[in-house]
Amino acid sequence: METPEPSEAPEDAEAAPSAEQPAPAGIAAQDWAAASADPQYRAAVTDLLGALAYGELSAFERLADDAKLAPTLADKAALARMASAEFHHFEQITERLTMIDADPAEAMAPFAAPLDEFHRMTAPSDWLEGLVKAYVGDAIAADFYREVAVRLDADTRSLVLRVLDDTGHASFAVDKVRAAIEAEPRVGGRLALWARRLMGEALAQAQRVVADRDALSTMLVGGVADGFDLAEIGKMFSRITEAHTRRMAALGLAA
Amino acid sequence: METPEPSEAPEDAEAAPSAEQPAPAGIAAQDWAAASADPQYRAAVTDLLGALAYGELSAFERLADDAKLAPTLADKAALARMASAEFHHFEQITERLTMIDADPAEAMAPFAAPLDEFHRMTAPSDWLEGLVKAYVGDAIAADFYREVAVRLDADTRSLVLRVLDDTGHASFAVDKVRAAIEAEPRVGGRLALWARRLMGEALAQAQRVVADRDALSTMLVGGVADGFDLAEIGKMFSRITEAHTRRMAALGLAA
Q1: Which residue of B has its CA nearest to A105?
Q2: What does the alpha-carbon distance between residue A40 and residue A46 come to, in Å, rounded to a whole number?
């Protein structure tokens, strides 16, 4: 998974935490050994790592699939390299799940259906759509995990930030898409529609996950004690949507 | 690429080189710097590494595809791990091509059509067919490259043998296939037919490559000076076919 450009979301969240949010300092200042004493926190982290692991595995499959659409052997190799990088992230996360006594397959299972459905609804019809999807999907996922990272214990946070580290793949996608739009401006309109559809499907699946996974959702809004506030989830989604809009503009696409 | 069990072919070839073959000691005793002075040898090695690189890239894609058919998340992860290992082999070979001043994409290009055609003709229809294909395909490729390795300069030989190193993947396939046949013996008949078809298609494509690539084919039969002998190529193919038959028997399949 990649971080195409620094997301502004976590800074926002740190600079101006909304009044409803408990200060994240509590758990964020702890390590896993201390934080995991709370069974609800443990369940939330298992969910989070399960979702992240399945996301990486699923990104691996998607990129490997897109490699088939590559116009040149060099492009095919570049996509295969990205796929392989996602797989190594997947391995780091599943090792971590095993280390905290969670079964990786069980932890991933609840997220398989929403992610598979997202990919089914957004199968790219050509190479450029595949690139835009990889770029947009990775960026949204990175924004989301950065939002969450500030609420995690130090050990889990360091893993999450490590697997989101920019591997230079985003710039590959951006260069190719920009060049294609310059060569044929009409392509921009089609890809802008495509990016909008990706965002819509991503939000639909994310809302489904939020509705299903209580422990995870409660953690997302910064509290495990008082249940969660749908308005706060809505704010997080809109921060992520705004970051997406800025990224699309940078790419030369109206979002 | 994997070496499911030690192939006997190279030992045969070393123990009883046929009378027509010049002793391989000449080039095999040299390093790349010395051997590459012969432009025909250089062309043959470029071809060989190009074929091997495309084979690895194509194995990456095939395994990533098969991961979709996996019955469990653990199986899916195991296939993704194999795919990623093939990709790392691919990277080693393309780095080597670059080091010897060959363009990897150009070196691979002549082998893309035969390999793509092979995969098109042998798309597995289920998980077990995919496993048998990965096992059979890797084993045949490993046999072939071991046959060739004895004729290579020391530097190229060490790379070729390194990327054929057993990564433990074959035993994964063998275990799963054996268990499936034990659970339902009829499956064995279907998979035996499938393995026969794989071998037939592999030989058809290999013969196409032999007919097209003079420098490579000449090297395969151990001589770059006198042109090549189709009978010798035939012998190599039959050694590889025999090894395949033994492997299928070990798997519980009549070949």
Answers
A1: B73
A2: 10
Residue in chain B lying closest to A111 (CA): B73
Scored b (16 or more CB within 10 A) or e, B120-148 reads eebebeebbbbbbbbbbbbbbbbbbbbbb
Structural domain boundaries enclosing A138: 36-250
Average pLDDT of chain A to the nearest whole number? 82
A155 vs A79: CA distance, rounded Å: 30
Instruction: Select the highest-mean-pLDDT range: B3-17, B26-40, B229-243.
Output: B26-40
- The predicted complex's ipTM stands at 0.71
pLDDT at B251 over 60: yes
Residue B104 lies in a domain: yes
Distance CA A53, CA A49 (A): 6
- Asked if the Cβ–Cβ distance from B64 to A68 is below 8 Å, we say no
Looking at chain B, which residue has its C-alpha nearest residue A109? B73
Q: Is residue B73 part of a domain?
A: yes
A 97-116 residues with CB below 8 A of B?
104-105, 108-109, 112
| Spatial separation of the C-alpha atoms in residues B77 and B88, rounded to whole Å | 17
- Contact: A88, B88; criterion CB under 8 Å: no
Q: Is residue B23 part of a domain?
A: no
> Which residue from B216, B191, B194 is spatially nearest to B206, judged by alpha carbons?
B216
A47 found inside a domain? yes
- Chain B CB contacts of A65 below 8 Å: 64-65
B233: its two tokens: 């190529």
By Cβ distance, the residue of A61, A84, A105 closest to B68 is A61
Cβ of B80 within 8 Å of Cβ of A72? The answer is: no
Report the domain count for chain B. 1
Per DSSP, the three-state class of B213 is: coil
- How is A199-217 classified by DSSP, letter by letter? HHHHHHHHHHHHHH-HHHH
Residues 16-55 of B with CB under 8 A from A: 54
Task: Tell me the mean pLDDT in the region B169-173.
Answer: 81
